[in-house]
Amino acid sequence: MNHVKSLACVSCGASYSSLPSTYTCAACRGILDVVYDYGSIDCEHIKRSLAANPDRSIWRYERLLPVSPGGPRPSLRVGGTPIYAASRLAQEIGLSGVFIKDDGVNPTASLKDRASAVATAMALEAGAATISCSSTGNAASSCAGCAASVGLPTVIFVPERAPAGKLAQLRIFNAVVIRVQGSYRDAFNLSREAIQRYGWYNRNAAINPYMVEGKKTVSFEICEQLGAALPDWVAVAVGDGCTIAGVWKGFRELHDIGAISRAPRILGVQAEGSNPISVSFRTGKPMQPGQEDTIADSIAVGEPRNPVKAVRAVRDSGGTMIDVSDEEILSAMRLLGRTTGVFGEPAGSAGLAGLVRAVREGIVDPSASACAIVTGNGLKDIQTGIRAAGEPITIPPDIALLERELARVAPGVLP
Amino acid sequence: MNHVKSLACVSCGASYSSLPSTYTCAACRGILDVVYDYGSIDCEHIKRSLAANPDRSIWRYERLLPVSPGGPRPSLRVGGTPIYAASRLAQEIGLSGVFIKDDGVNPTASLKDRASAVATAMALEAGAATISCSSTGNAASSCAGCAASVGLPTVIFVPERAPAGKLAQLRIFNAVVIRVQGSYRDAFNLSREAIQRYGWYNRNAAINPYMVEGKKTVSFEICEQLGAALPDWVAVAVGDGCTIAGVWKGFRELHDIGAISRAPRILGVQAEGSNPISVSFRTGKPMQPGQEDTIADSIAVGEPRNPVKAVRAVRDSGGTMIDVSDEEILSAMRLLGRTTGVFGEPAGSAGLAGLVRAVREGIVDPSASACAIVTGNGLKDIQTGIRAAGEPITIPPDIALLERELARVAPGVLP
Asked: Do A94 and A167 have their domain in common?
């Protein structure tokens, strides 16, 4: 028995005792939020059982998740990702302390595994025979990987323009990949029709309220890993709005049950070329769809589905939102790799890019500490990695030429 | 104080109390092996301290490594990778049990991180100011990543033909990458000259005896994770010969100190198009250089540097060697992804390919259990992933057409 009390619509407030068949609010089509009976959660008991639990995956938090304790789970080990104290990075950007949470080492190499693991568990509990979603990115590959680990078929809908590289993971995990001749909207609509007709489990984060629940485990881990050293700010990239909602929910819940005495402020980071949520945050007006012009494909979302949850997360935390250029993202990729040995994909490094800018603009005080979440592995987008990192030095095999070049580009390596 | 007793030449048996400046045997240029004072190791004490140690990285084994306990370490969290009991996979290939050890979730996405972490620790202990190696693959990127995490510069020598994708990780980790106009041998020779001239720390696995020490931790983990369920066989791909030597050394040491009652047999797997070590194993003759004709680039090694260690490892374990075709490797990539949700690079899936063949040929008995080590992440080589996995289904946005295609390729997903 878990602690779920109800599902509440984030738009109109309607409350449901169980998930409606369409997954969204029956009254207004708003996205639902999972509400727990926080009063019934014994914080001291949870702390003691966590301390005694050797499982480092997200399932160590099953009492704070919508799953049935001891229920069926995907076998991939999701979560338990490392956090690094990055002192040289902190010094370079002028902060008292910086932590890097590397979620790119999850099984399919992104934070989305946290959501997909919960989706797969929920699908198994529901007795679903197939999981489906429409996406070309990390959501799809994590869904296909988690489902493959328990032999559950997946049907993934992608738009015609989906790059071949993104399809490799999906096909390796034996997903049925339907490339829809048309736009992303065409793919999404066909997926919706098929999901309804065939009764597949719907993993679309735009609809399924349990995705946020999986994502909140990243914050549970940050709290456990840093303890009393919890940072003042947590920076994370924003695309659809689901991830930042999960990040904040994790901190808020631990604060609500008394496990932490204060929660960090959330710095939401969008790309300048795709920033409808941060515009809505700044203007206070309802979100308007915008363009998708950024190298950070995982956050290139012109019409995000979770703006309400996202804006609320930032507001509730006392945080703010900021936009960064593609150049700033490329620069953050280099900075991250050079100072920590972590290779983040463009969207995965955007959180850090926002942090750098926020320090420069005086939004984050130099005396503050911050954690940037790296949401995806740079190996997902090698081309942009090359663009960020620059070319090698090409020379004939001649030690004199080598020495001349080293003296020019890296004199420090010469004695 | 660690338990290292001496360094012994694997070719002529000469013994050294400390590492010679050239890293190899002064008498015959043979590769050295680190010998510990096993009699002084208290197995029960080690078992107790491991049980109480929450650190899941390779440093939990520092007492069995050549490093100084509590000495400087790279900050990337290496090791602690998951092992999966793959029951559907076992059933498909006809074995009583199969385990998959997924080393592709290491920080730079390969098992080589284990060696590079030890190299970086040793370089820090030695007070080296720069680390260098010549490689285009996982050894180089893991070296650059581990070194970047502690601000140690790296100089990596690559041959002219090094693919751009492989350079992205290196450059992101801010390695000085020297592309040498010429062959791999030209790059290697220039690196050797420069390393000697400038006093850099040499991470070449062909020379540095400590690389095997890092790699043996994968077997320590398998023993801890499986306990009494230790499999009869462990399958691993063989390129240079260093990894398989490390895998066997880990089991042998735990057996020698009494931590396990029996060690698994080692199944060494080479690609048919690059198999000089397995030819030497079968013929009993000294290894002859061969071709490098396989899609599995990480084990395409025409002139391996560790054949003696590799052949000895297989012999001592009572195991054997086997070759697999590129088609068998591609098939193993699909099998692995479909049944476990793990995406291995071609060389990373070759161990499993060998296991499949060994079962078919009666080398491994159906009643046996086996573990295949996935040595690298499939995201390192997306192109081959696509080649292995096949194309998606392309259709216009039409539910009738969708249903027809699903009935054809995946009737199981229809109600």
From this structure: no
Whether residue A1 is predicted with pLDDT greater than 60 in this model: the reply is no
Count of C-beta atoms within a 10 Å radius of residue B90: 19
Q: Of B62, B58, B60, B66, whose CA–CA distance to B5 is shortest?
A: B66
The mean pLDDT of B290-302, rounded to a whole number, is 91
- Number of residues assigned to chain B: 415
As given in the structure block, the two tokens for residue A16 are: 């449901």
Amino acid A184: pLDDT: 79
Q: Tell me, yes or no, whether B144 lies in a domain.
A: no
ipTM at complex level: 0.96
Residue A156: which CATH number? 3.40.50.1100
Q: Which residues in B lie closer than 8 A to residue A108 (C-beta atoms)?
A: 341, 343
Q: How far, in Å, CA of B109 to CA of B106, rounded? A: 5
Q: B158-168: string of b/e by CB count within 10 Å (b at 16+)?
A: bbeebeebbbb
Position with higher pLDDT, B149 vs B380: B149
Residue at A336: amino acid letter: L
Residues of B in contact with A133 (CB under 8 A): none
Helix (H, G, I), strand (E, B) or coil at A109: coil
Whether B75 contacts chain A with CB within 8 A: yes
pLDDT for the residue numbered B1: 56
Together in a domain, A9 and A59? no
Which segments of B269-372 does DSSP mark as H helices, in order? 276-283, 307-317, 326-340, 346-360
Whether residues A157 and A145 share a domain: the answer is yes
Q: How many contacts, defined by CB atoms under 8 Å, are there between A and B?
A: 277
**Mean pLDDT, chain A, integer:** 95
Sole residue written with tokens 């089991």: B251
Tokens for B308, please give them.
Answer: 């003696």
The per-residue pLDDT for range A319-350, each reduced to its tens digit, is 999 999 999 999 999 999 999 999 999 999 99
What one-letter code names the amino acid at B325?
Answer: S
**3-state percent breakdown (helix, strand, coil) of chain B, nearest 5:** 45, 15, 35
Indicate if A139 and A29 belong to the same structural domain.
Answer: no
- B4 strand-pairing partners: B36
Note whether A148 and A205 are same-domain residues: yes
Q: Are residues A156 and A18 part of one domain? A: no
Q: Would the pTM count as exceeding 0.95?
A: yes
**Domain-embedded: residue A400:** no
Residue A159 backbone dihedrals phi, psi, to 5 degrees: -75, 165
Residue A399 placed within a domain: no
Instruction: Read off the pLDDT band of B206 (50, 70, 90).
Output: confident
- The answer, yes or no, to whether residue B113 has pLDDT greater than 70, is yes
> Which chain A residues are Cβ-neighbours of B151 within 8 angstroms?
88, 339
Chain A residues with CB under 8 Å of B197 CB are: 399
Domain count, chain B: 1
Could you tell me the two tokens for A343?
């290779």
Residue B202 lies in a domain: no
The answer, for A227 touching chain B at a CB cutoff of 8 Å, is no
Same domain, A103 and A245: yes
Per-residue model confidence as pLDDT tens digits over B11-30: 999 999 988 888 999 999 99
Domain with A17, as residue range(s), is 1-40
User: Is the pLDDT reported for residue B2 higher than 90?
Assistant: no
Q: How far apart are CA A339 and CA A307, in angstroms?
A: 33
CA distances from B285 to A306, B276, B307, B319 (A): 66, 11, 11, 18
Residue among A88, A77, A84 nearest A100 (CA):
A84
Report how far residue B325's alpha carbon sits from residue B353's, in angstroms, rounded to the nearest whole number: 9
What gap in Å lies between CA A115 and CA A71, rounded to an integer? 16
Interface touch B151/A88, C-beta < 8 Å: yes
